[in-house]
Amino acid sequence: MAVEKDVYVLPRNPTEAERLHAQHEHYTRSFGGLLVHPSIDLQEYRSILDCCTGTGAWLRDARVASHAGATFDACDQSLEQYEQNNPVADQVYVQDITKPFPADLHGKYDLVHQRLLTAGIRRDQWPTAIANVAQTLKPGGKLTLTELNLELIRGAGNGTSEHLEWKNELTRAWWKKANLVHNCADHIPDFMREAGLTDVQAIRLRVPYGAACLLIGMPEVSVDSSIRLYGGVSPALKRQWVESGTGTAEEYDAKQAAHEEFLKSEGMWMDVNMVVGTKPL
Ligand SMILES: C[S@@+](CC[C@H](N)C(=O)[O-])C[C@H]1O[C@@H](n2cnc3c(N)ncnc32)[C@H](O)[C@@H]1O
Question: Measured by CB atoms within 10 angstroms of the end CB, which terminus of the chain is less buried, N or C?
């Protein structure tokens, strides 16, 4: 039997799990505590799924912000990173969202949250994947997706910097080769409409890295911690750089060091879209 290749280009291991946790904290702080699209009042929902949960970090915080009687399920293609020893979900299961969910889960949830699949879903798979996830919603239920653009924006706003363009070109080439969507945030509303969701609304947010953290009042320590957060995907990028024959490991390290110096002095932003859609009645 042919085994379908896992598209996901990021690692799944304890180091990445730690990075995902820290990333969740950074996102939540950047968004002023916002966990879902602001039109959603978590207190109104009773049956919630965190789809592609990773470590379950979102679910842990969403549980505190929701009605005490709400049930929370979590699913992911791999539960390797889910905190098996500290479970917060009522039911946890393995599910590849590019495949239909089992029939007994259809129409189960009144709210489904899903975040950061840009590294896992190919362009041609997105509308079907969203339609699969939407099948688990009750009629009238809400799907809230949060996705980011990988294009880096300099801290000062206008113009480009060679230190960011270097990374932009690398991720663009990598994402293109894997058929992934580089500026996923921009495309999510259309993918959701294509998947049959209605009343699609989006808000654009921005996540700071390096010195840009200080511009929104984050503590000094977040300058370095956010650089480490973004740098966490660097080993995979470095492998791509070396394997594709673009340059040597030493050249990569020198460019990475200059990139991090730039982040310390000026910083950068990444655009995020929080989008909500409704399953038709
Ligand atoms: C970048 S992590 C984000 C995790 C979590 N949503 C968060 O925001 O912290 C992406 C997650 O999606 C999962 N994933 C990737 N492709 C998937 C697929 N086809 N079906 C289900 N989960 C998938 C990965 O295993 C990983 O846990």
Answer: N
